[in-house]
Write a structure and sequence with these properties.
Chain lengths: 316, 276
């Protein structure tokens, strides 16, 4: 695997490996063959893909029927349409029926940038958290993504995986071992604890390194596993600091910021929390990714500024 | 193979028995019911479970069994009465319909009730899932057939027509859709709320092989379903029914969409449904 990889390519290679190893895995797409970068899979297994056309409700329903027939069904299409257009099929057919369907929400967050809010998925984590049975993951790098998908394929039950839409560099070394539920500590420092989700973990790490150069020590916790979640483990990471900052390319309501707020309240952690992401009642700006992230203060510069402001509050 | 294989006379008797169960089940429900929808479908589910379906209570995990999906999930009561009559669970359970923590909730839940293949209740879900089941069976070379029962009001849900496109595209001739066409829905007649006619032409245009039958006549249902032989095309059977069929003061009356018999209505209904 190269140092930087598109997560959809990782997904497709995992599918090829699974079928090669005897897993009866069937990807289901809604005309989304280019979105899912599924061509190498089709070349390897020409008769296996199911394409239902531009129709997300039947994409999810068909996947459920395939799963009830003993197959590992994997829907692969753009996250905004998967979550919104087929919302009741996800709730009822996948989750309530507890079927063995893996939902890949591709190009999630504001990956589609200038295509504007119809194509942004800034509500998927909050919606999926409201549904029963389903496990929820948001990989931050190709290595982690591969391990999450391998786990999801062997797990008997529904899984949602939030996939970023750009090539992402590797964050973890070869020793990394993904454990469902466990947040991973990427930088350590107690002046501020930054919790980040998905691709913006890279922004948080870059911010931490810049802050360290400026004499401010911050932790970066990658919360790739939303359900299951080792809540005590995350609480331990959040303890002993005066400031917690959550960072996500998602609405601040119902996503990582809400998870962190719940855990802090439940565990009696009294640090000040700043939630960075799409503000209450808002949408992500339509523009390229640097612009969109800058507007939301979820780029490394914005995170640095917020952390500096918080730390300076203490020292004044 | 179906374990019962009843003839038409026996199916008619069975249907009457199931109707009596429906009256009692709804009368015992603390949370209302859908008596009209339960009664409308009786001959359809009876013909399937006691003659046509290749499935049985001791084969609920058999990979080759036929699958029946009750997409009109609000008619769970009638479905439960048929499953009980066929031996999928004890008849005593019927008196617990919609009671707290019952095996028989107000809409089908497969985790709760033996024989239920899919959780339904929200409409327009059965057909897309049936498409996936039928597609898997074809790919795996199984003889399985997949039957799905929809209401006619339910056909306003667009997911059905998405699924119809896919069923036709993938030539799912092992899929049999039955429309319980009783011409009534919650708020009134389908004609006034959202007309689906000409329904046969719509299905034909979507690539289905279309037949019609009298959905409250077991002879007509059996004859129609046993004669299906569309090759390379999914099937739809438009079963023309009367909502609340079998009980004179319920049949055809919209108010019985979500009503249950009470007091002397129970005795009157049971008297009409006595074996002749």
């Amino acid at each position: 695997m190269s140092n930087s990889e598109h997560l959809a390519n990782v997904m497709v290679q995992c599918f090829i490996d699974a079928v090669s190893n005897g897993v009866d895995l069937v990807p289901v797409v809604a005309d989304s063959t280019s979105t899912s970068k599924i061509k190498p899979f089709v070349e390897a297994f020409p008769d296996r893909l199911v394409n239902v056309g531009i129709a997300e409700q039947v994409m999810v329903g068909t996947a459920v029927g395939l799963a009830l027939s003993g197959k590992v069904a994997a829907t692969c299409n753009a996250a905004p349409f998967l979550i919104s257009r087929s919302n009741e099929q996800v709730k009822v057919d996948v989750c309530y029926n507890n079927t063995n369907v893996k939902l890949f929400g591709l190009n999630a967050g504001a990956s589609y940038g200038p295509l504007a809010s119809t194509h942004h998925s800034i509500d998927d984590i909050s919606i999926m958290r409201g549904f029963g049975n389903i496990q929820i993951f948001a990989p931050a790098c190709p290595v982690e993504c591969k391990q999450i998908i391998e786990y999801a394929i062997q797990h008997d039950g529904p899984v949602y995986i939030r996939m970023d839409g750009k090539a992402l560099p590797v964050l973890h070394d070869s020793e990394f071992q993904f454990t469902p539920g466990d947040p991973s500590l990427l930088r350590e420092g107690k002046q501020v604890v930054i919790c980040a989700l998905g691709s913006v973990v890279h922004e948080a790490v870059a911010a931490a390194d810049r802050l360290k150069d400026g004499g401010i020590e911050v932790s970066v916790v990658n919360v790739s596993s939303i359900r299951p979640l080792n809540r005590q483990g995350l609480a331990n990471q959040l303890s002993g600091t005066d400031y917690v900052v959550s960072v996500e390319e998602h609405n601040v309501n119902g996503g990582l910021g809400s998870v962190v707020a719940e855990i802090m309240a439940e565990q009696g952690i009294t640090a000040k929390l700043v939630r960075l992401g799409v503000e209450d009642g808002g949408y992500a700006a339509a523009g390229d990714r640097p612009y969109t992230r800058k507007m939301l203060s979820i780029d490394s510069g914005g995170i640095v500024a917020v952390c500096q402001q918080l730390v300076n509050e203490t020292t004044v | 193979m179906n374990p019962f294989q009843l003839d038409v006379d026996e199916l008619e008797k069975k249907a009457r028995s199931i109707r009596r169960k429906i009256i009692r089940l709804n009368a015992d429900s603390p949370a209302g019911g859908h008596t009209g929808a339960d009664l409308s479908q009786v001959e359809i589910v009876t013909s399937l479970y006691f003659r046509l379906l290749n499935c049985a209570p001791d084969r609920v995990s058999d990979d080759d069994r036929d699958i029946y999906i009750q997409s009109k999930g609000h008619a769970a009561g009638g479905y439960y009465c048929c499953l009980a009559e066929a031996g999928y669970f004890p008849e005593e359970w019927l008196s617990s319909y919609q009671h707290n923590d019952s095996h028989l909730p107000g809409h089908p839940v497969r985790q709760k009730t033996p024989g239920v293949e899919l959780n339904t209740g929200a409409l327009g879900h059965g057909l897309p899932v049936a498409v996936g089941l039928a597609l898997a069976a074809k790919r795996d070379g199984r003889s399985r057939k997949v039957y799905v029962l929809t209401g006619d009001g339910e056909l306003a849900e667009g997911s059905n027509w998405e699924a119809a496109l896919v069923a036709s595209h993938y030539q799912l001739d092992n899929l049999i859709v039955i429309n319980d066409k009783n011409r009534l829905q919650l708020a009134g007649s389908t004609e006034s709320i959202m007309k689906t006619d000409p329904l046969d032409q719509k299905w034909q245009a979507f690539g289905f092989s279309v037949t019609q039958c009298d959905g409250n006549d077991v002879a007509s249902i059996v004859r129609t379903l046993e004669a299906l032989k569309a090759e390379g095309q999914p099937n739809v059977v438009i079963a023309n029914t009367t909502k609340g069929a079998g009980v004179s003061f319920i049949a055809g009356r919209p108010e019985w969409h979500h009503r249950v018999p009470k007091g002397e209505e129970i005795d009157l209904a049971l008297k009409e449904l006595a074996d002749v």
